[in-house]
Every structure is written in C-alpha cells, then in structure tokens.
Amino acid sequence: MIIPENLKPADGRFGCGPSKVRPVAVAALADVATTFLGTSHRQATVKNEVARLRRGLAQLFSLPEGYEVVIGNGGTTAFWEVATFGLIRDRAQFASFGEFGSKFVSSVKAAPFLGEPSVRKADPGSAPTLVAEAGIDAYCIPQNETSTGVAVPIRRVEGADEGALLLVDATSAAGGLAVDITETDVYYFAPQKCFGSDGGLWIAVMSPAAIARAFEIKESGRYIPAFLDLVTAIEQSRLEQTYNTPALATIFLAAEQTDWMLANGGLEWCAKRTAESAGVLYDWALNSPVAAPYVVEESLRSNVVATIDFDDSVDATAIAKALRANGIVDTEPYRKLGRNQLRIALFPSVEPADVEALTKCIDFVLAGL
C-alpha cells in the first residue's frame, strides 16, 4: 500500500523512545564535532555543556531555592537502583499501574536491607492514588506511564509522615507535561523522550530534603555500589561532570533541546504544544467508527503518549506495518500490553501538523484494508 506523499507528515517519527531528534539539533552537534566529541569529560569543553544542561533545566522547571539538578549515567532503570540504595530509608509506597512503575517495585522488593513496600495497584489504562501510611518514608509514582498512556497529577501525599519524600518517575513526562516541582522531592527522568536526545543518562531534580536523605543514608554505613552512589552523583554534578564518562552527544542534544524549549516559551509552551497534538489525535479517535482512546477516563489520558484501541474488525498490526512501509514509524503498541492498538508519541519535538497528517494516513490505510 502506497500512501500519497501529500498526506504524509513532514517527519514520520512517532516513537515513544528513542524519540524524534530534531534535525537542527543534530546539525548543531555536527558543528561542534571536532571540538566536543572525543574530548575529555573532565575538561571545560564538556563541563560547559553539562553546566548548560543543568542551568537550562533549572530555568525550565523554575527550581526553588535549594533544589539541584543531578546527573548520572545509566538511564531511569539505573536510577531505580540508585534510589533503592540511596533514597529509601526503610519502607516505600508505590503507585503501580503499568510496566515501568512495577519495575521500580521489583527493585525495592529485592533489596534485603529494606522493609516490605506498600504497593497500590490499578489495572493498565487506569491509575491508583498514593495514600498516607504510617512508617512510609518514600512515596513513588510515575507521572506518565509510558506503556499505557496514563498520566496523573503530581501532588504531595496529604498526611504523610514528617520527612517522607515524594519520588516522581517523569521519564516520558518531563518537558511535556506541566508540573509544580515544589510538590516533589525527586523528579527524575531520562532524555530520550521529551528532551529529544539519546538514552543512557538519568537526570534528577532534587529537593534539599532529598539531598539530605542521600547523605544521611550514605553516612549510615549502608553498602552502596560505587556506580549507584547518589552522593557521588550529587557531588560530581556540582562540579559540572558525571562520575564516569557520559555519552557526550546525549548531553549536548539534551542541552540543545532544553534551550529550544526555553526559547519557545518554556514548560508552559511545551505543555500547550503536547496538549494540542493530543487534542488532534483523541478527537480523531473519538470520531472514528473503528477507533477509541484506550484510556477511558478523560482526565487520565496522557498528552505525551497516546494509546488508541481499534475494533476487532481492524488489525492494528497491519496498520502499523503499512505506516512503517511508508516511512511513518514506531506506532506499534507496547509489546507486553498485548492490545489491538497504536501507541503514538506526542512529545514537544513532534509537530501538531504531523499528528494531523498521521490521522489522515491512518484513515487512508483503513480504507485500503
């Protein structure tokens, strides 16, 4: 099946991670290739880029006094282990409503030095709430569940024990959804989604209370593997560097994306842009005779990751294959969810006009099938 060129989006990348990297950012990286790539990460050339990224993120999230941007290697998966060793004192409560939230739960359950976590679950496509519970010193929740396209509001847990932290997995939300950072203690993410970069890096916006907790646990004598030592990451970030060698291109692309976001109006602009794209896609699905948003409750539908179900009369796999054959890629659903659906990234780099074009392409494919 050949989709007419006049129907196609200008850029056919709709993947949820790695996500679309803006060509202008790649060109900017190429411009500094001989002076930046392949140079020491302990020297000013690279440290200046780390500083640019940290400053940009501080501005993007309007950081209050005392909050810090901390950077380390390994991505969000590594940060779950970092938090397990260096942020949870004894017992954590989790909101688990998809593949990625459940993985953090598994890390904590496996840690012999931590108490049994409290887990509040909901079926995929919906979300639980965190509830105050005596003895819980860390509450953990994804802002956006990348596997299902569910997004939840972020607020502190009313009635929680004094000093309890709120850890927010913002991997696919940060930079695309609004957030009040003062409602969080650790807002952590990786840059291969809204920040239009590659993976392999974790970034955590940390409150003074979270930083103090990291030092407290380190000083308690708990064994912490060097690679997962949060205090080391904090101290190295203050020096505008990472504990060990980072992927330089990843840092540069994330800094470029952050500057682009700020130049266009910051987080407010980013959130409006993703909301516009989401409006186009969800309206199309609601008006389609064979499609519907997977997330039934409108308030939980994500503006950065949209999941669209199809009737049994339609094979969503065939739609995704036809799109891919025409250069419109990565619309397949999350593999473990097992739904007859498409999953489409609506990150800030994705043009709303391209989302509109995508819906026309899907209609064309449906007509052909």
Automatic annotation (TrEMBL):
It comes from Longispora fulva. Its EC number is 2.6.1.52. InterPro entries: Aminotrans_V_dom, Pser_aminoTfrase, Pser_aminoTfrase_mycobac, PyrdxlP-dep_Trfase, PyrdxlP-dep_Trfase_major, PyrdxlP-dep_Trfase_small. Keywords: Amino-acid biosynthesis, Aminotransferase, Cytoplasm, Pyridoxal phosphate, Pyridoxine biosynthesis, Serine biosynthesis, Transferase. The keyword Amino-acid biosynthesis applies. GO terms for molecular function: alanine-glyoxylate transaminase activity; L-serine-pyruvate transaminase activity; O-phospho-L-serine:2-oxoglutarate aminotransferase activity. Its cofactor is pyridoxal 5'-phosphate. The lineage of its organism: Bacteria, Bacillati, Actinomycetota, Actinomycetes, Micromonosporales. NCBIfam families: serC_3 (TIGR01366). This is phosphoserine transaminase. Belongs to the class-V pyridoxal-phosphate-dependent aminotransferase family. SerC subfamily. It is an enzyme of class 2 (transferase). One of its GO terms (biological process) is pyridoxine biosynthetic process. Transmembrane segments: none annotated. It catalyses: O-phospho-L-serine + 2-oxoglutarate = 3-phosphooxypyruvate + L-glutamate; 4-(phosphooxy)-L-threonine + 2-oxoglutarate = (R)-3-hydroxy-2-oxo-4-phosphooxybutanoate + L-glutamate.
